[in-house]
Fold this sequence. Notes:
This protein is an alpha+beta fold. Helix content is 25%, strand content 14%. The protein has a two-stranded parallel ribbon with strand order 1-2. Strand 1 (19-23), helix 1 and strand 2 form a beta-alpha-beta unit. The radius of gyration is 17 Å and the shape is flat.
Amino acid sequence: MYELQMFPAPPSESPVSGVVILGRFQPFHKGHEFMLEFAERWRQSNHPELPLIIAIGSSNRPESLRNPW
């Protein structure tokens, strides 16, 4: 058995902690807006020192009937 190399290499410093919301947001709608507002209220009530991090995800797949975005 051999050890696989990490690619890309892990960061030299730990990433900053935060409240993370991950989504594709395609198309952005009222449900997304509600979720982000709720997450921000939760962050302010529970961890105001942490940033709210909004991460945009992707399936990295071509458009299809099952994955139109």
